[in-house]
Design a protein that fits this description.
It is built from 9 helices and 7 strands, in the order βαβαααβαβαβαβαβα. The chain is of the alpha/beta class. It is globular, with a radius of gyration of 20 Å. The termini are far apart.
Length: 213
């Protein structure tokens, strides 16, 4: 079975993003599609390193770091470091993840909900929220403590259910379709959730202000 379009995994070299990478690799291997590993560099930090430490940032050097990160995540016997693609972007993480995933025609974006807390970080908390709000591409979020599976068979033992939040717009359809494929593959229950924000009437607001509600 082939998924066709590639899977994009955003990493920041943290243990949490290594877990996301393992999930992405398991999915890419199962569906027979390409895996793109992306990291986003802050241009201010790269310029500061150049001015303060005399270290000249290059895209190629960062791609080599990505290859080493993949190798350390999967071990010396893995062939993944030589088969996946590497992409490096400069800018704010969320816009760059959205841009690259759209330009590369990705079927799925995989990322952790939490990243580094040091100088080199993606602020995955706020980044995750923005990506989820603005993307039209399905996103798989992995918990920061998850080490991730080696294969889809391992994933069955690690994942208990799949939660799919939707907003009932046309963009929800590909998200639901992708989640269905993964849930079917893993033979897992899938929960489809839609959140309705409470709406207060003027009367209810006045009663609350008056302490009557």
């Amino acid at each position: 079975m082939s998924l066709g379009p590639p899977i994009l995994c955003a990493v920041d070299f943290s243990d949490a993003s290594a877990g996301a990478l393992r999930h992405a690799a398991a999915l890419a291997g199962h569906f027979g599609t390409r895996l793109i590993v992306l990291t986003v560099e802050d241009p201010l930090l790269t310029e500061a390193a150049d001015l303060g430490l005399g270290i000249t940032w290059t895209e190629e050097a960062t791609k080599q770091e990505l290859a080493l990160f993949v190798a350390s995540t999967f071990g010396p016997t893995s062939t993944l470091p030589t088969t996946c693609e590497y992409d490096v972007a400069l800018g704010k993480p969320a816009p760059e993840i959205l841009r690259v995933s759209a330009e590369r025609g990705c079927a799925l974006v995989v990322m952790s909900t939490q990243g580094l807390t040091g100088a080199r970080k993606l602020f995955f908390g706020s980044t995750t929220e923005r990506v989820l709000r603005e993307t039209t591409i399905p996103v798989l979020l992995t918990p920061p403590q998850a080490s991730g599976p080696v294969s889809m068979a391992d994933a069955k033992a690690l994942v208990r259910r799949i939660l799919v939040p939707i907003d009932l717009s046309p963009t929800s359809t590909p998200h639901l379709e992708m989640a269905t494929r993964v849930a079917t593959t893993l033979d897992l229950p899938m929960i489809v959730a839609h959140v309705i924000e409470p709406v207060k009437t003027r009367l209810a607001a006045r009663l609350q202000q008056a302490g009557l509600q």
